[in-house]
Design goal:
187 residues; alpha+beta; eight-stranded antiparallel sheet; three-stranded antiparallel sheet; 3 helices; 40% strand; globular
Length: 187
């Protein structure tokens, strides 16, 4: 058997195992968000821009362009995580400062055979540099909103889909977020 030179073999191997983006595909144009070991898929709206996740625990991340008057883009993150549904919702509520906690809405529905818990929270968002478990500096962001979904699966764990940012930007993208979540499909 003839052996390929090491450098050629390395190039061929790197091409085979490299992410699709190195073969000419632009991840910014791919709206598919696969979860549950590839068994479920969500489709992000065309205007949302796929980004490299800021942290390793996030599987998918999108920037949601700010609407006129907002200074920051919205952010969508998708990740698998553990913990009880209500504990995670309580943690998210705790990331917002609210005068009377009345700005929290919760709903449960079944989509594609999976229980999905929806949460809508408004107030001053307390963003922690490095994520909520890092112990980093907290930056308060007034007039923020989070729309979130916890997708539960029988065998593959829970998946968190969180859209948050300035209230006007999130309000302008609420219908698109709900269409994405309601469009959850088995692959």
């Amino acid at each position: 058997m003839k052996m390929l030179p090491i450098s050629l073999a390395a190039v061929v191997l790197s091409w085979l195992v490299a992410p699709a983006i190195t073969r000419g595909e632009d991840p910014k144009n791919d709206p598919a968000i696969t979860i549950a070991e590839g068994k479920l898929v969500l489709t992000a709206p065309d205007k949302w821009v796929r980004k490299q996740p800021k942290t390793r625990i996030v599987d998918h991340e999108f920037a949601i362009p700010a609407v006129e008057g907002d200074q920051a883009d919205g952010r969508l993150t998708v990740m698998g995580a553990g913990g009880a549904v209500e504990d995670n919702i309580a943690r998210w509520v705790g990331q917002f400062e609210q005068p009377d906690k009345k700005d929290v809405k919760k709903e449960k529905k079944t989509i594609a055979g999976n229980e999905v818990y929806l949460v809508d929270i408004s107030g001053t968002y307390k963003e922690t540099a490095g994520g909520p478990f890092s112990g980093g500096k907290v930056v308060e962001k007034p007039d923020y909103r989070m729309l979130a979904a916890i997708i539960t699966t029988e065998k593959d764990g829970n998946y968190f889909v969180k859209l948050y940012g300035p209230s006007k930007t999130i309000a302008a993208n609420e219908a698109a977020f709900m269409k994405m979540v309601d469009g959850l499909k088995k692959k």
